[in-house]
């Protein structure tokens, strides 16, 4: 018995779409997409502030700081940090903490949870599974789609230099609850699963996001963040 029996047409549709992606990748190599001119990497992924935050282990996770929102422009924050460094001989952890609290908002403002409107309660393929236990498990598994759809708020588009998150025009599936961005490699398997579960609209929107990244950057980044 093949539990993940997939009806062939869906499989072909995915392969064709991915071929199209590869084809457009080759084309945009000749004409690379526009680079993001709202570069905040000087604050969120390099520079003195970034080094101090990471080396003093201000947070228990190394991605917490790069996922924060800048509360002012990267230039202003860099300037303020230079002033602080100039006025204190040795910057201690407490001062650094206060600085980060003043100029950054905690992570989480760059993503919202959305409900997939094409979710199907009983995808056809589950009926082909005769083992009742397995069928129940697949049923539960199918329910997880409802927990994994995300969208980037408009503010990420309008204030791109305040976030490491890259704005995506459509909702996307994250590979698990703790993730806060879309990943390229994971999206391949996600889209296979979405097609199997008859969520064609969500699958299409995921592919459109990948095409959007291709147009903007000339390639599809590993994940939808700039660090
Ligand atoms: C890490 O820090 C965050 C925020 O301060 C906290 O919510 C979380 O529980 C901490 N995680 C661990 C594993 O200590
Ligand atoms: C910090 O000090 C350096 C060296 O004295 C100086 O060149 C720089 O202009 C100062 N920066 C600010 C923002 O005060
Ligand atoms: C690329 O994405 C994968 C998930 O698909 C992740 O495990 C890996 O850490 C990422 N690599 C980099 C360099 O960020």
From TrEMBL:
Keywords, sorted A to Z: Signal
Reactions listed under catalytic activity: alpha,alpha-trehalose + H2O = alpha-D-glucose + beta-D-glucose
Annotated GO MF terms: alpha,alpha-trehalase activity
EC number, UniProt record: 3.2.1.28
GO aspect biological process, one term: trehalose catabolic process
Domain of life: Eukaryota
Family of the protein in this entry: Belongs to the glycosyl hydrolase 37 family.
InterPro entries per UniProt: 6-hairpin_glycosidase_sf (IPR008928), 6hp_glycosidase-like_sf (IPR012341), Glyco_hydro_37 (IPR001661)
Signal peptide: 1-28
Protein's organism: Hirondellea gigas
Pfam families, A to Z: Trehalase (PF01204)
Protein name from the UniProt record: Trehalase
PANTHER family assigned to the protein according to its UniProt record, in alphabetical order: TREHALASE
